[in-house]
Amino acid sequence: NDDLKAELLEIALDAAHRAGAFLRDGRPDDLGVAATKSSAVDVVTEMDIASEKLITGLLADRRPDDGVLGEEGASVEGSSGVQWVIDPIDGTVNYLYGLPSWSVSIAALKDGETVVGVVHAPMRAETYRAVLGQGAYVNDRPARVRPAPAFGLALVGTGFGYVAERRARQAEVVGHLIPQVRDIRRGGSAAIDLCDVATGRLDAYYERGLNPWDYAAGDLIAREAGALTGGRPGEPLSTDLTIAAPPGLFEPLQARLDELGAWHD
Ligand code: IPD
After folding, report:
1. What task does this protein carry out (predicted)?
2. Taking Cα atoms as reference points, which of 103, 12, 92 lies closest to residue 46?
3. In which element (H, E) is residue 149 found?
4. Strand 228-230 to strand 113-121: parallel, antiparallel, or no bridges (unpaired)?
5. HSE of 184 in the Cβ direction (CA atoms, 13 Å)?
6. Which of 122, 189, 215, 232 has a C-alpha 20 to 30 A away from that of 128?
7. What is the best residue among 48, 163, 189 to mutate for testing ligand 1's pocket, by most ligand atoms within 8 Å of CB?
């Protein structure tokens, strides 16, 4: 119900703002890599871990019966029907290098459906938020997708995974697309890319191999701003493939990506 959504939104905004301020103000000058995951370039910093701890601590205080899934290992089953899906730093490589495009992404699901999404981008001083059925906002302004351009005039965002074989395949797909669209962008934070579709800074975005914490909040924000999101034709977005674009551009992009086999390594 609306009271629950309002409560979850308030908590998500509070957690994202606190984590964002901590990450922005507390970034050590000599920040290094604490651990690696799927490959030597898939990195975790001490700040990813500390940010996840800060967020999960706040959630445990405010809503102790909720489930939690976090990129850095947080995993709580919960008993309330509410599950939080958290990326404590989306765009960790940007954060590591001091590039500004990184975010904190927090989604709340009720009985498996995303009802609240918050993406906070401290270096842009922007917070994107959406509540299911209530529209999307950037700070306090309504967010709206850009009307679909012709396919050949689309500015398309994408991203690449961390494992060499997957990247080689992703490069092949992007190699086919570049001559067919206006241009390609690789921002480095999937959550921000989805919000950029929501605010018309990108016409479209796609990526193979994202995890739920990368896309859960941004997916709702993009949809509430008027985008369609999905995976292969007829399928919802998933780890295989995530696509977001306004109606009119979504369909030809989805068809083209399917033809190119963008959903497999
Ligand atoms: C990554 C970013 C990046 C995308 C990668 C993600 P992380 O998330 O969203 O833009 O291309 O696929 O893994 O590791 O920085 O949280």
Report:
1. Catalyzes the dephosphorylation of histidinol-phosphate to histidinol, the direct precursor of histidine.
2. 92
3. none
4. unpaired
5. 17
6. 232
7. 189
Confirm or reject: Cβ of 160 under 6 Å from ligand 1: yes
Token couple for 43: 């990195």
Residue at 264: amino acid letter:
H
> How far is it, in rounded angstroms, from Cα 35 to Cα 26?
19
**2-142 and 151-259: identical CATH topology:** no
Position 1 confidence tier, pLDDT thresholds 50, 70, 90 = confident
DSSP assignment letter at 155? E
- Architecture label for domain 151-259: 3-Layer(aba) Sandwich (3.40)
Question: 185 has which bridge partners?
Answer: 157
Please report the pLDDT score of residue 254 as a whole number: 98
Predicted ipTM of the assembly: 0.96
Residue with structure tokens 């965002």?
A: 157
Q: How far does the centroid of ligand 1 lie from the alpha carbon of residue 190, in Å?
A: 6
Block residue for tokens 């981008």: 121
pTM over 0.90: yes
**Ligand 1, closest atom to CA 87?**
16
Q: Are strands 136-138 and 141-142 parallel, antiparallel or unpaired?
A: antiparallel
Query: What CATH class is the domain 2-142?
Result: alpha beta
